[in-house]
Design brief:
The chain is 45% helix and 12% strand. The protein is of the alpha/beta class and 333 residues long. The termini are close together. Bound molecules: phosphoric acid mono(formamide)ester and norvaline (NVA).
Length: 333
Amino acid sequence: MSDFKGRSFLTLMEYSPEEILELIDLADKFKKMKKENVPHNDQLRGKNIALIFEKTSTRTRCSFEVAANDLGMHTTYLSPSGSQIGKKESIEDTAKVLGRMFDGIEYRGFEQELVEKLARYAGVPVWNGLTNEYHPTQILADMMTIREHFGDLKGRKLVYMGDARYNMGNSLMIGCAKLGLNFTASAPKQYFPNKELRNKCARWAEESGSVLSFETNPFEAIKGADVVYTDVWVSMGEPDSIWEERIRDLTPYKVTTELMSKAKRDAIFMHCLPAFHDLNTKIGAQMGKKFNITDMEVTDDVFRDYSEVIFDEAENRMHTIKAVMAATLGYKD
Ligand code: CP
Ligand code: NVA
């Protein structure tokens, strides 16, 4: 295994394709061990991990907590309102304090710059649990799930429907470019990833053989897709006033049974979750009433048809996050 010890995990950009695959291989191993009740808490027992969440979470927080526990480590959770960060204490000072107490720090927050700063000053590995721009641990779980399902990654086509210039669109594009999957973002032009990132990804794509494309027509984009992916239309931290515009702009990209029927016959649908596929959430119900809709980025029937793979994907968050923590804290495979 490559030497990951002491490294932060802020985006997939700093990791080579081989290293990304090694992390997914390690996650596969941990998953097998967990299923077979084989303990793996011998090497990192007693280490301490800080979990900073400036935005809410179900999967990411639980993944870090369960994974840390399985590795024999302790966690301290700092909630969106439970710390002084950025309010009474700078990121730099916070990083220096936490770096004296903890062996690793997870951070979920707003601008990428904040997690980068934390990593610069902490002196211990910092793991990005989602920022506005990137969600790298999610991509590891997504790639693990795609490989579990199809048996390979290279040459597969992943189509991302919706707001592709935010954390999920950006990170999937990077992951696909590095690992040799073809990536198509489908949305109105203003929702495409920015030029700078597209140019960077184009270079990795050239090396891996991946083809990146950007298509405003969802029925064109989905042709030949192995994986159809979407995410919420309004992300955490965005203002409520944006819903109307997003529903108007992105409804043509909603993943419906009709749209899925134009992908490859054995294509799968994936979603990082949480998803608005029905009105059984507070916000879903509010928006349903306000805009007279019954779902948003994906219909309930598509969501249910592919629920097995979607929940495998959610489970794989834990195995991949475990791999990232273990590798960067010096676990020897
Ligand atoms: N997919 C994901 O990051 O989920 P949470 O927001 O629940 O952590
Ligand atoms: N784009 C979403 C991803 C949630 C996992 C958000 O940032 O809210």
